[in-house]
Amino acid sequence: MTTRTFVRTAFAPNEPPPLEADSTASRFARSLFATPANFALTVLSVGIVALVLPPLIRFLFLDATWSGTSRDDCLANAGACWPFVRAKFGQFIYGFYPAAERWRPNLVLAFGALLLAPLLIPAAPFKRTNALLFFGVYPVVSFVLLTGGNLDLQKFLLGRFLQWTTVAGVGFGIGLRWAFWTDFLFSAVVIVALVAALAALLRASVFAAVTAAGMVLAGLGIILLAVDLDFGLAPVETRSWGGFLVTLIVAVTGIVVSLPLGVLLALGRRSRMPAVRYACILFIEFWRGVPLITVLFFATYMLPLFLPRDVTFDTLLRALIGVALFAAAYMAEVVRGGLQSISRGQHEAAAALGLGYWRMMGLIILPQALTLVIPGIVNNFIGLFKDTTLVLIVAIFDLLGQIRASFADPNWATPVTLYTGFAFAGVIYFVFCFGMSRYALYIERRTAAYGRGS
After folding, report:
1. Which of 161, 170, 276, 295 has the fewest CB atoms within 10 Å, measured from its CB?
2. How many Cα atoms sit within 13 Å of 118 on the Cβ side?
3. Whole-angstrom Cα distance, residue 253 to residue 248?
């Protein structure tokens, strides 16, 4: 067999520069007109933009009315009636929250932004302290500011306790009629029982069970004390809330509750204990099998029919619980997809290091799984934020509901009022949803730079 070799005797000709070294214009042209299909799609896209964008700009800006005090000022032009938005802006943001007390939701929004910003900035220090303040202290402070606090829980729970003891024939309950801390004692017994049962289930030590019970009781006592004290704030019922305030409350509550609950449901669905696994499967499939409108209707109108006559729950609270449970079921499936994408070797490596189940999940498996499903998680968040408009069906006026209610004002009844209000709502929803998507993209790129993302 003869072997032939070739040795170049001259330099090879220069190659064209790489694509990255080309001009921006050439890269732009290649991406838009590289093939006949790209060329056709580009022409079609430009035609759609040319068809939609100029009339939209004329309506929103060029032909719009920017100043005025009534519908007569808006009838002179064919564009948007922005004085309508300016006149109803307070209702769009706060609903029918008393004007003299609007400093309270303003303070809640300001505190929320100040506590949330460091959590979203990866380089910000004191993450644990900030997370404790945001997820532990901030909800209590917000509740007190928005409602006024002073729920008189000791009177309610003491009355319930005396009713139960009277029915049971226990006479010593009469002597506790004026006990100030009866509600705290009653709640403490329930919490201690739950913690003790959980500790026995997990085979924890007695010291760990007592420590956990003490921490839970301390937190419960602080919360009950905070919401039960009289801070001198005027009470504001939730039926007076509305507008963007309700939209944020429903969306933030659903987002904050659905993620940890979804993680627990996803772990439970993969559990080796049949009772836990089937309970989680039943919960997830039930809530995923019914529309959110049905959940809201049931929580608002049908749930009171199954409760005793003197047991009532706030309408907004019922909607919040329904939205949170509904979102948690969908979040559980997203997280389960991330858990299934983790190779078995990760579990075996964690077990070889001597890590228990919860430490393995918290330190090894869940960080990787959640990183992989960031797009799905954020997609659920965005969908939940937009689904808050459904609470209007149960007479809770969110941003869109408050805008629709404002159309009935005859002082601003014009042919363009409807479109102006919807344009204002669309801009707000777009800003928040687009912001969430861009932040998720930033987190994806950051995790990929550290080798933890795809």
Report:
1. 170
2. 15
3. 8
pTM value surpassing 0.70? yes
Domain spans, the chain: 98-145, 151-229
Closest among 235, 241, 236, 237 to 396, alpha carbons compared: 241
* H runs (alpha helix) in 148-269: 153-168, 182-201, 206-228, 243-269
Contacts from 132-138 at CB under 8 Å and sequence distance 24+?
135/256, 136/219, 138/111, 138/112
Largest separation between any pair of C-alpha atoms in the chain: 112
Query: Tokens 């004026």 label which residue?
Result: 178
- Report pLDDT digits (tens) over 83-142: 999 999 999 999 999 999 999 999 999 999 999 999 998 888 888 899 888 988 898 889
Give 314's DSSP letter: -
DSSP 174: G
DSSP secondary structure code for residue 230 in this structure: B
Distance of alpha carbon 79 from alpha carbon 63, whole angstroms: 4
417 to 64, 73, 431: CA distances (angstroms): 11, 12, 22
Distance in angstroms (rounded) separating the CA atoms of residues 146 and 97 = 9
108 contacts 93 by C-beta, under 8 angstroms: no
Give Cα 141 to chain centroid, integer Å.
18
Backbone φ and ψ for 125, nearest 5 degrees, come out as: -80, 175
Dihedral sign for Cα atoms in the order 259, 129, 119, 224: positive
Amino acid type, 98: P
Residues 177, 160 contacting (CB under 8 angstroms): no
